[in-house]
């Protein structure tokens, strides 16, 4: 009797496992950044300063690949421009891979972080977040924003934090 019960439970578990699939693995999206925001990136700082900064030198139309990590996490592959923006290195065509949150439920965030020292004039931190709003990384359409946050300390120990935001929409292609 026990063997039959365990056999049935094993068969049910196998069917449930097959019917639910293996979970999120990969999605590819054609992304379109908001061109108006991209050409004059809006920003706001915690010291009250706000306005628009120079255009980001990146194409408004991009392809982003999101993959599952090894431990329920995610990764996003975006154009190399974003590595240049974060790490202040020469631009190349190598895609930039940014680690993200769990693939279980949204909103989803992918975060890059860089700290630096500028000679004797100060130091700073740059945080780059790619945020996909929604409940699934397998949706046909996505929307969200890129948030570039800078905190720069000058020689007078003034440390305003500024946020630069560009929104996007996307369509799944794979």
UniProtKB/TrEMBL annotation:
Top-level taxon of the source organism? Bacteria
Identification of the protein by name: Lipoprotein
The species this protein was found in: Myxococcus fulvus
């Amino acid at each position: 009797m026990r063997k039959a019960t365990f056999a049935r439970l094993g068969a049910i578990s196998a069917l449930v496992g097959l019917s639910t699939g293996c979970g999120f693995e990969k999605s590819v999206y054609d992304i379109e950044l908001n061109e108006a925001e991209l050409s004059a990136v809006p920003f706001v700082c915690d010291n009250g300063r706000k306005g628009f900064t120079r255009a980001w030198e990146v194409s408004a139309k991009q392809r982003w690949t999101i993959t599952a990590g090894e431990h329920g996490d995610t990764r996003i592959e975006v154009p190399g421009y974003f590595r240049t923006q974060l790490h202040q290195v020469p631009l190349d065509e190598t895609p930039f891979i940014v680690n993200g949150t769990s693939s279980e439920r949204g909103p989803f965030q992918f975060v890059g972080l860089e700290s630096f020292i500028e000679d004797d004039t100060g130091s700073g931190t740059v945080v780059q977040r790619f945020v996909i709003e929604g409940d699934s990384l397998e949706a046909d359409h996505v929307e969200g924003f890129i948030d570039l946050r800078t905190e720069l300390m000058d020689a007078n120990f003034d440390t305003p934090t500024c946020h630069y935001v560009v929104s996007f929409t996307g369509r799944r292609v794979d």
